[in-house]
Every structure is written in structure tokens, then in C-alpha cells.
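=== Structural record ===
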Amino acid sequence: METKGSEFGVASIGKSRQARTIAKEKPGVSPRILTDFLLDHAVFLRLSDVSNALPPLDEKVIEVSMTPEHYEAYKKFADELKTEVRQALARGNHSLLGAFVQSLLAYPDGARRGEIVSDPYTGALIASAPPIDERLLPKEEKLLEILKAELSEGRKCLVCLEHTGTRDLIPDLLERMQQQGFRPFALRVNTVSTEKREAWVKAKVGSGEYDIMITNPNLIRTGLDLVEFPTIIFFQTGYSIFTLRQASRRSWRIGQDQPVRVYYLSYADSMQATALSLIAAKLETALTVEGDLSDGGLAALAQSSNSMLIELARSLLQDEESSVSEAWMRYKRKEIISDSFLDDEVPEIETTTTTITKGDRSTSVTYERVVRGRVYPRKDHAVAYVDRKYKFFLQGGKIFFNGKECGHYDRKGMGEINGKPIQIAKAPHRTYYVLIEFLPALPGRQPGKVSQAGRG
């Protein structure tokens, strides 16, 4: 309801009159709709609740090395910027932090154009990077290599990149793809209205004239099901946790019937690798704190662009070593724990794989979620039988084996036994719980042949 109250002296200077009060009913939905009509007839699901019925999801993190000339120019540019930013910070001036991060993220991909950083207040030149005369930059070459392999299998590809505005890279990528005989099209912010975007994409793909879509991940992070593209390639990841997490799942949806592959590309030993490592660390924290990733409330505050920008600047200024491989391995382990589901009380194994490539070396890490045994609640404690022969006592958040403390658990059932992550979950339609172990899969191990959680 909208109400206009009484005011005095609003007509003109020197005059006074009392305004009339007008009450209008405004259209809306009563909160009682939810409690009286919807809750009894609704089921609220997360994607992880139905992920057992979805095809496999394979994520690959690929670090690409720059050419010697490329890297030398980048390193000199980064050193110049570091010096200037440190001096500015010593004077209490933080105005260069944004340009510092954005320029170091952008230059490796836009090296053909060079990069210039100026003082935002005085316009004075702070640092510059020269143009690199290379027909095909290393990451572009890797992108084309991935596209060729995926398209040869009949898989349409979605390519995501951050720089589609001032440092627009879409024309460069379109040109190089077309030179290889690929058939790309671009989705931009002004291409089609938001409500018509999904239908527009389906029409483009359905025409049979295109096999690759290029876009900014911000345009597809919500409201779209892009099952037509079982392969998603992040040519650039940016540093928004929510955008990356949402956009990377656009094709891993209900209705997808092909295995989904997601590639994350970055230049090794650069700000891009630092950003990817930091994103993985933030995702791991988000899964722990939130249990569900959201773009509202405190979650949005925790992952705001300014916070990430400052973290990126600090990590580079302090010359912190960032291992993309280790960061993503930790995140994927936390993700499979957070997103685990339970279908039955019988032992089962669920697998997720992450592949990290750097230069000529490639490492795949597979984590398994294994139901190890049953947990029976008692009056003031619980008893767990693992592999039908090892007996554990659970009491007051602690886990005991043969009278010795060997682990712990929290109110949500998450914990560890001998340093190995576990979860205690309710078995559907049963009076007991189950104990689930999460562990890296070992090469050559057959399903069901897992390590002894309680004996390590």
C-alpha cells in the first residue's frame, strides 16, 4: 500500500498548504501464499540432490606457458607495476590496486595490443608493456587444440571470457576460429534481451550453422540451461566466485545426456594462475561456511569483487607462491563432500575427477565417496560398524576405536577419522545412519577396494 502524507510549504515560497493523504492498493502476493498453499505441495532441490542421475562431470585445469618473449615482457611489466604500487601504498594511496590487477590479468591475452597503466588522478604514465607481434598466442593455440578435439567428437562448445568490453577479445577469437574452419557465433549483452536469450541460443544451434558460442560468463550465469554445449571452456576465468561456479554448470543440468567437460585455461606463473588458485581457495571456504553457494546476503559480501581484488593484489605484492594444482585439488575434495548424496544404505562409490595440466605434465586426481558402514544411535552415544568388523564409538563430537580417540565429527555429521574426511548421514527410510569416507582414488584400485578408515 502506498501512502502520501501531509506536508507544509510545498507549494511555493511564502505559501503553505496541507497536502491530501491518498492511499492506494498496490499489486503483490501475500506471504500466506507460501505457507498456506505452496509448502505442502512443493519440493526444493539443489543440483547435487539429483546429480546421481546426471552424466559424469570432468573438470580440467590447464596452465599454458608463455613464449620467452611474451613472458619476458610480462615479467618486466609486472615488476614495474609492483614497484609503483608499493610506493603508492607507502603513501597511503590505494588508487592503483585496480589497474594493477586488471592490467596483469589482461596483458597476457591482449599482448598484441600492449598495455598502458596511468595514474587515475594525474594521468601520469605508471608502467607500460609493449605489443607482442605473434600471430597466435600460446593460450589461443591451446584453445583451438581443445576445440578441434571436442568438435571431432561431435560436441558443441561454449567459450567464456571476461574481456568483452574495453579490451574486447571476441573479434580476435572469432577470426582465429573461422580460420580453422570452425563455425562460431557470439552472444553479447546487447545481442538479445535476457528473457529471450535461451530461445535465441537454441535457434542458433538448431539451425545447424554453428558449433561454438563465445560469450561473457556474466550473461549465462543464471536463468539458462545450455545442454546443447556439453563442453565449456573458460578462456578467462576472472575472479568472481559466484559467476564462475554458476557459469561452469550451465550444461550440467537435468536433460543433459552427454558427459560434461569443463576446461579452465590460464597462463602459468602469471596473475591469471594466482586468480585461479585464489578462486579455488575461496570456493573451498564458501562450501565450508555456506553449505550452498549464494549470490545474496553475507555470501555476496564475502565474495565481492573488491575483496577478491585486494586479495589478488596482496598475493602478488607479497610474492606468495600459488599452486593452482594444490588449490583445485583441495576445492574438489571439499566439493564432493559438500555435494554428496545418499541413495541407499548399501555400499556405493561416487567418483569425481579433476585434471591439472602444466606444460607437458598432466595430473588427474579422482576423489571417491564410499559408504563404509552403519551407525546406530544409542541413548547417550552411537556405535559405528565399518566394513562389518571395525567397531567405533561416537560420543560428544569425538570418535573412539579400542578406547583411543581417533577422530571427530560436528553437528552436521562432517568430520575425520585418522585424518581422513568422513560424513555421517541418515539412511533414507531407515532407523540407522551410514558412515561415508572421502578419499583420493588410487590408480588400479577396483571399485569397493578402499583403505581402512579406522586403522590408518
In short: The CA atoms of residues 44 and 181 lie 45 Å apart. Residues 369-440 form one domain. The chain has a mean pLDDT of 77. The chain has three domains: 2-41, 53-339, 369-440.
